[in-house]
Amino acid sequence: MTLGLSLSAFTTLHVVISLIGIAAGFIVVYGLLNAQRLEPWTAVFLVTTILTSVTGFMFPIGGMTPALVVGAVSLVVLALALVALYVFQLAGPWRWVYVVTALLALYLNVFVGVVQAFKQLAFLQPLAPTQSEPPFAAAQLAVLALFLVLGFLAVRRFHPATGAPA
User: 165 exposed, middle or buried (CB, 10 Å; 0-12, 13-18, 19+)?
Assistant: First the structure.
């Protein structure tokens, strides 16, 4: 039992939080690409993405795993995003620091989502049973390419002081 929930219920809660974080993250990326802060969506994205990592540490796992490393990296990246956004108010280089860290946090969430999809979804499992097969690699490469393009465009376009009001 975690947080008083059965493992199944806790897993469902973790997945729902993760999916909300991913959806809110893509809305935030839309805002970045259009020089808009979209503050309520940004708050939802940051909070749910933090909760995704925190709840990930609550699973009964023995020892260090790749998932825990990704969770730790995500929390460090999110701390930088929070500092850039709320402490330094996106001033100077903190604008691009925020954009890069927000996109990296979203990428990590999506990366784990792809891993879990290939593990949990019956129609994907046969395509990559060990997650070292070409379909898995292609999916992760496509996600990485998408985020590199989005990151490049967002850094160039996100100038909220001169962009449309949020």
Answer: exposed
Domain span at residue 137 reads 7-157
- Flag whether 26 is in a domain: yes
The pLDDT assigned to 62 comes to 86
* Residue 165 domain-assigned (yes or no): no
What integer pLDDT is reported at residue 13 of this predicted model? Answer: 96
Helices (H), 57-133: 66-82, 94-120
Residue 57 backbone phi and psi in degrees, to 5: -75, -15
Domain presence at residue 106: yes
Instruction: Give 99-157 pLDDT, tens digit per residue.
Output: 999 999 999 999 999 999 999 999 999 999 999 999 999 999 999 999 999 999 999 99
**Can you give the pTM of this predicted structure?**
0.93
In a domain, 14, yes or no: yes
Number of domains in the chain: 1
Characterize 133-162 residue by residue with b for buried, 16 or more Cβ atoms within 10 angstroms of its Cβ, and e for exposed.
Answer: eeebeebbeeeeeebeebbeebbeebebee
